[in-house]
Amino acid sequence: MSGVYQAEIVSNNSIDNEAYLLTLKAPEIARASMPGNFVQLKIEMADGGFWRRPFSVLDTDGGNIKILYKPLGKGTLALTKFPPGKIVSVIGALGNSFSFPSRDSMIILTGGGIGVPPLYNLAKHLIKSDYNPRNIHFFNGAAGHDSIVYLEESAELGINVYAVTEDGSMGIKGYVTDGVKQFLNGMSKTSLSNEPVMYACGPMPMLRAVGLMVSEYDVYCEMALEALMPCGFGICMGCVVMARDDKSVEGFSYKRVCREGPVFRADDIIWETDGKKWLNY
Amino acid sequence: MAELLTEIAGIEFKNPVWLASGTCGYGEELTDFYGLDELGAIVTKTISLEPRAGHPPPRVFETSSGMLNAIGLQNVGVDKFISEKVPFLRKHRAKLVVNVAGRSVDEYCRVSETLNSVSDDVVMIELNMSCPNVASGMEFSKKPSLASELVKSVKKITPIPVIAKLSPNVSDITEIAVAVEEGGADALSMINTLVGMAVDVNTFKPRLSNITGGLSGPAIKPVALAMVYRASQAVKLPIIGIGGIRNVEDVIEFMLCGASAVQVGTANFIDPMTPMNISHDLDIWLERKGFTSPSELIGKIEVE
Q: How far apart are CA B126 and CA B163, in angstroms?
């Protein structure tokens, strides 16, 4: 159950590679939040922008929630100016969350850009639930070494962390899916008994590539989607994606990223229909 | 304490603050935040005869002090609405107004007739004569003769009082207001969204899959006020004001311009508590100004 809360900003600092770490005092949300959940922050914008902005929860710490963001749009740019002590209106915790895999799974986390936070959150929860960190493989993709986020912090969890950069300036060269494919190819050769299970989050073009990859490799995958979200709690019907729906006459229905998601099974998302992309990505 | 009780077409509402169609679903999600029985009324997402999938994304875009939407009337259809949604709304004692749309007069009538089976639950029907995002939806709100015929036909088929929801996308809204009054409407609600558009200058593509959409939010409030004012001069019907309402001052403005009640729309997205806050503040405002009922404000704008 979610609510509207007035939360105090504990800290809002620039960390590495243009990312900011925002800590909010929001005990009710911290208590309820599960990996994949998000919050809607009210951010005043000078040009008349007035929607809230959705942020996935990176971590919880006592009564605090942490959010990792990059100032890429007018909302996040305005947010960088918010000082500690300021009270902001937050709605949360919103959306569904990742399901936990079976204990002996080979857990692959595929994150692109600022899609890393919910996967970090998931890794942390899994470890807290006594999953073996050595079975968790986190592929963190970015354009280059200067834009990759939360790599060291992820490594500190004791999991396997792989940097993948498009320009090759750090780790594996290529898209994050190239890194994961190399890993999956290697795995089948060593015939590990552990079944791979994937969790992904990132920009839509990346998630589409992940969707195609897991279908080719026959790997179960859940992905947290992003969308423009006027409300975030299901009343506006604005943030939908086309998803398989056996109960509907058409075989699909438009599902709300904020309510039925943000976490969807990769094989439920319909990326294109009649060869036509339905999304401007 | 002022008395917020409001009467529209012989029906009593707890207060004059309603939820606008398309901005509150069928009420389910809002029960996380407050009890539906605390509202004046809830106007459901548009119901059509058959379920509709709606438009593909992108469906929404933020503009200066407003937003564009082209949802495409995604809804469960009237049968499923009655079997799945009405029991929930009944359980939560919501004052239920059902927004209805159709592709033809006959379709509007068939949906309204189907609703007769739950006439104990549905206090009013609101005819969506004006959705700008669906082909043919606009016609009823543009031609006075069609608007009048639609209301007349629905009135014949159902005992449930009928609200005609008007579109601002016309050259003279008073013509339509007069026509639906002649057709027998019990009330007017206005305005629906204004047709609008936005373009991505990087991709050269429209921001909405439907190309154009409906503009709502604070940006349209002055337009809505002018139209409510003009319509109130032209007809005797009670008017329910809609358009960019965010706070109690907005409500007072609408009432002074002739509205008997209001619907909160886009503001629900930003803060779902908005209608609760407005009702609370309205009580305080009336008390402070020495009024005992919001009805004392209706049409009381002072024009030289």
A: 4
